[in-house]
Amino acid sequence: MTIGIGLLGLGTVGAGVAAIVASPQGRHPLVAELQLRRVAVRDLQRPRPINLAPELLTGSPEAVVDDPSVDIVVEVMGGLEPARSLILRAIAAGKPVVTANKAVIARYGEEIAAAATAQGVYVLIEAAVGGGIPIIEPLKQSLGANRIQRVSGIINGTTNYILSRMADEGAAYAEVLADAQRLGYAEADPAADVQGHDAADKIAILAALAFGGSVPRAAIPTAGIDSLDARDVAYAAQLGFGVKLLAVAEQVGLSAEGAAELDVRVHPTLLPKDHPLAGVHGVNNAILVEADPVGRVMFYGPGAGAGPTASAVVADILNIAGIRQVERALPPGAVAPLDPLLAGRTWRPCALVDPAGTHHRNYVRLRTTDQAGVIGKIGSCFGEEGVSIQSIVQFQPSVDAAEGAEIVVITHEVREAAFRSALAAIEALPDVRSVAACLRTL
Ligand code: NAP
Ligand code: HSE
């Protein structure tokens, strides 16, 4: 018996999904049961990379959701609205939804999950994080027995592709970003990638699954690669580090009321060259899960692009199609119960801790005058706040002494508030021209 698919969007991901559905040979037999019934696009005249019967296309996404021949709604249009309303409309009609839309899930996941639970339908989101990497279902199901301590990783393909090509080939930022857009890696507005917001959406989703409750998306401290200076990438390399855009969610406490206290953040990070995440290049993503008792588990693979993302979307469709088949085989009137693990219910509140109280290693680049005693004064400012220095190195931007010096400091793991106080004191030193860069270090 066939399963009717309604696609909202036929861009990079939608076309990838349509291509899999159109060629079921050699895949799981359920793929052959899937049939595209309606496809919504914005521009009906635009040439498409895949041949579809013209009558399948419509400019009305509501018509796709409402079409009685559509059993599963697949939202791959992106953006917040009308995507959120269309997902809720599908749920209200009792239709399961598959979506790759991390922006919607990170902001409206609770609302959507509540509506889905009330209606007894699934909303599956494997493609929302990590492209082709299975990470959502492992966190919901396979790692369910663990106490998760930390989830960290490279979860934006565009920025990892940009950083890798800049480091390996010395390629120019704008040129590599244009390539990432052409290859279908970047968001419709690539500012979401390079400013870190896409990674923040994804870590919000992973944190909710790992720690049992939704986190306030807007409160996640986020820095992207758009303000990263190539000079810091070069200095980091000389000091034995690579630079990656890292997203981290870790449990740092448990409140008396049982809420998980989390440090969740996104920022460019210096990684020692032998760290497992430092070897993740190009569009690849990797997510490291540290949990008790499993230990460290790393998920690696292509994090963006049509094929990998469609692989995750179609896997979710097949999960639902399989359940549909079981339901159809049940005696009349019987209803298959919603699988709580697949549905991904949460079980406790989560709260973000004040960043001032968190502990990190830091990389700081200071522009200073090139004079005796400067390094000593800087060291004293750190020392007065109890900030322990791991290394301090002077770099010379040019042979011209008038240009001054550049001093790079790497701290041990220190309290953020103490580090910030020390930086304020350093910035006030007459010999210090500016705090030119400040990055986290693993
Ligand atoms: P895309 O290439 O821009 O495609 C979006 C599609 O949706 C287009 O076909 C567009 O129609 C259609 N669309 C947009 N607004 C519409 C509206 N109001 N009514 C009808 N159709 C509408 O985007 P994408 O890269 O495929 O990404 C889709 C979603 O997947 C996003 O949520 C994105 O974050 C997520 N995602 C993408 C990737 C990736 O690697 N690209 C990976 C994981 C997740 P037209 O073609 O006529 O413009
Ligand atoms: N723009 C996103 C990225 C797509 O580059 O990772 C995959 O979610």
Shape, please? elongated
Number of helices: 14
Do you know the CATH architecture of the largest domain?
3-Layer(aba) Sandwich
Oligomeric state as shown: single chain
Instruction: Determine the mean pLDDT.
Output: 95
State the low-pLDDT regions, or none: none
Task: State the share of residues found in helices, binned by percent.
Answer: 25-40%
CATH top level class name of the largest domain: Alpha Beta
Distance between the termini: 52 Å
Strand element count? 17
Detail the topology: elements first, then pairings.
Layout: E1 3-8, H1 12-22, E2 34-40, E3 57-58, H2 61-66, E4 72-75, H3 83-92, E5 97-99, H4 102-119, E6 123-124, H5 136-142, E7 147-154, H6 157-169, H7 173-182, H8 191-194, H9 197-211, H10 230-238, E8 241-254, E9 260-272, E10 284-292, E11 295-302, H11 306-329, H12 340-343, E12 350-352, E13 359-368, H13 374-384, E14 389-395, E15 405-411, E16 414-415, H14 416-427, E17 432-441
Parallel strand pairs: 1-2, 1-4, 2-3, 4-5, 5-6, 9-12, 9-17
Antiparallel strand pairs: 7-8, 7-10, 8-9, 10-11, 13-15, 13-16, 13-17, 14-15
Residues 131, 156-158, 185-187, 193, 198, 303-304 line the site of L-homoserine.
